Amino acid sequence: MILAARLILSVVVAAPGPEAPVAVVIATANGSEAVVVSNDAGYPALPASTLARLLPLDAVIEADWAVVHFAGQPFRFLLDAPVMEFHGVVIPLVGGAYLRRDSLFVPLQWLSQFIPRMFSEAYRYDPRQALFEEVGTLTAGAMVVESATRPANPVPAEARAAGLRFSHKVVVDAGHGGAHPGNPGRYLPRGMQEKHVTLALAKVLQRELEKRGVEVVMTRTTDTLIDLMDRAPMCRNDCDLFVSLHVNSFANRNARGFETYFLDHAQNEAAARVAAMENEALRYEASLEQGPDGELGFIFQDLLRNAYLRESAQLADLIQRRGREVHPGGGRYVGQANFAVLRGATRPAVLVEAGYASNPEDGRFLASSAGQRRLAEAIADGIVDYLRSYELKTAASPPQ
After folding, report:
1. Do 359 and 255 contact (CB within 8 A), yes or no?
2. Exposure string for 349-375, b = 16+ CB within 10 A, e = fewer
3. What is the pLDDT of residues 176-215, one digit of tens each?
4. What are the structural domains of the chain?
5. Which of 172, 206, 260, 388 has the fewest C-beta atoms lying within 10 Å of its C-beta?
6. Number of H helices and number of E strands within the chain?
7. Do the bridges between strand 57-62 and strand 65-70 make them parallel or antiparallel, or are there none, so unpaired?
8. pLDDT tens digits, residue range 106-144?
9. Which among 230, 270, 267, 279 has a CA at the least distance from the CA of 251?
10. Strand 103-107 to strand 123-126: parallel, antiparallel, or no bridges (unpaired)?
11. Number of Cβ within a 10 Å radius of residue 75
């Protein structure tokens, strides 16, 4: 799906990379060709006309902009400026596209760093060999941002009955598990912990979503520990959104109610407290390394999170509206904070705090099968509300 988030990001200059190669080898199923690298503008760039012969690429000049389509996806470069725009998101670059002798040159950074990330199933770049290589078939699922036309998958009758025009897939995450029990639940029945409530609620939510024709992928179906940073990435390719389920706790036993969060900087102490509580599970994980991607990896993840921030906020609002209607403690608020479990999301993603195990009434409600069913129905309705609104917003035609 295309999410046209109108967000202007601060210009961030990426760290200098290795010395620029003299040429880049483009290797595809049709053969290999070395493309000479230009440094006329002070940074490595490649001629777009040559790339267009070798890759699914075309380019046109529109006033001060160069519009480059790669596999049908539009990248707009402001000529002679170190930025590009992708579906309304402005992305900083070390150097931008430029014209020399009526020929368009595009930055090597775009081809070597952004394209392999966005089309990871089809392309990769080896900086040591200066090799841009085709490694698989290019599909809609390979792209971080998909085509506006959804694949013509059969639409379940249950989905049509729920007012949906397309097939949808949702990842449901039962928070905590295994060695990390979550909060102990002062007012949960003896032996029951947060991890048990979230798993039970997730299973009921799975059934409710499937009744509405929505396909569900569970991050866990047993009492096992899944690393926080591995959960959201399970929602990729044809997945639409990610929902992580949790149970709240607070020193004041009078605190109660339903809350929904999305990923952003915490706006108040309460949201920061909830994020810190949920992020505590990181200490149970084997590795906390950030990975080899360096500064560009952080920049790219920030861009992805921002591209989906507005959609995540809307999803959170719709789930919160439904949840407060059925929760005996009512709905508290939609919040935002730096939840580790949401950091790897490349789709709209939210975290639900289903109630307070530190409150007697909430504890009884969360532990009961009737309470879990009412909550699951409400969350499922909120998800379907979002999917319907997104379908209308994109104004895409349903598959025939």
Report:
1. yes
2. bbbbbbbbbbbeebbebbbeeebbbbb
3. 999 999 987 889 998 899 999 999 999 999 999 999 999 9
4. 23-142 (3.30.457.10), 157-394 (3.40.630.40)
5. 388
6. 10, 18
7. antiparallel
8. 999 999 988 988 888 899 999 889 999 999 887 543 444
9. 270
10. unpaired
11. 22
Instruction: Please state, in angstroms and rounded to a whole number, the distance separating the CA atoms of residues 348 and 168.
Output: 13
H-helix or E-strand containing 210?
Answer: helix 194-211
Torsion over CA: 320, 321, 324, 325 (sign): negative
Q: What is the pTM of this model?
A: 0.61
Picking from 388, 308, 386, 322, the residue whose alpha carbon sits closest to that of residue 354 is: 322
The phi-psi region of residue 288 (left if phi > 0; otherwise alpha if psi is between -120 and 50; otherwise beta) is alpha
Burial letters 239-278, b for 16+ CB under 10 A, else e: bbbbbbbbbbbbeeeebbbbbbbbbbebeeebbeebbebb
208 C-beta neighbours (distance < 10 Å), count: 21
Q: Which of 399, 361, 354 is nearest to 376 (CA)?
A: 354
Count the neighbouring beta carbons within 10 Å of the beta carbon of residue 82: 20
